[in-house]
Amino acid sequence: xxxxxxxxxxxxxxxxxxxxxxxxxxxxxxxxxxxxxxxxxxxxxxxxxxxxxxxxxxxxxxxxxxxxxxxxxxxxxxxxxxxxxxxxxxxxxxxxxxxxxxxxxxxxxxxxxxxxxxxxxxxxxxxxxxxxxxxxxxxxxxxxxxxxxxxxxxxxxxxxxxxxxxxxxxxxxxxxxxxxxxxxxxxxxxxxxxxxxxxxxxxxxxxxxxxxxxxxxxxxxxxxxxxxxxxxxxxxxxxxxxxxxxxxxxxxxxxxxxxxxxxxxxxxxxxxxxxxxxxxxxxxxxxxxxxxxxxxxxxxxxxxxxxxxxxxxxxxxxxxxxxxxxxxxxxxxxxxxxxxxxxxxxxxxxxxxxxxxxxxxxxxxxxxxxxxxxxxxxxxxxxxxxxxxxxxxxxxxxxxx
Length: 401
Hints:
The chain is an alpha+beta fold.
């Protein structure tokens, strides 16, 4: 039996022991040893330990028993995968990342092919900042290179578990390496943990910052991503000048359902589809719904207005707004509610303009009095001959002082 078959057989046995938890008195093989064997076998074929290639080995170990035929079959499958992978056109790291996002590939697949570990911070950089928040691929790759160069993975993993992390010497050390997103990563991790514990996203007020709200509408939603542990995200674009800007929106399941139910037949159809996917324990996680591919067109949110805000993270003692186009939903307004709010805001603005004019009239009145014009004449010229109007102008001017 050749070395590859022996190694595959050893991998099969160790994996089975790990899964079945061997009897007391026998040493349970460490998971790290199984992972090392996976890496060893795939490296022999020139393959990275990305999930799509590891899956070949996982399929292999779930057979009830090992045979020469099975070993030959797995070897052939690995060789075929290696041939296809190694003969594929050479791509730059930026092109690889962009293609991965277009194909909605898991970060667990992409990172090993870029030469980086599937570590929590690396997953955050690609899955959160690049996929969800549309940050530039070059910025993500630069951060990954710095982490790898300075061997900072373990330092950040340890730092993220500390309460006052920004005062620790590890934080100073990492900042000297000019790592840009560690504060954002730690804040995001804690938001996610809090959300898992209370099953609800913490509000800006609970976190301690005041967001800059904006209202958007006519979002063209292309993808919806969710799983049972994290809140859903909408991926799409909005009109910006003559073109479109890509945007990602995070929201609660209840908010997602409210939006979908207000979006005519397509929204209702998508809502029912999501319910089925959530009810299916065998569905792939996270769940990705490519709306155009599955329903024939993008979802256009024409019947509602979303009041949204960008999340903020701490940098020292300051709260800093994230620069990428990722937003959280704060309120969902119907057209009627939005139009009512707009009219109220317009009326308030007009009232404010009138009050400013009345207050300014008192200044004109005072100028006339200083020029020696009589009180009655000055009031007449300033438009303040009415006593109530004169008092209002006086007090409005006082407020400005």
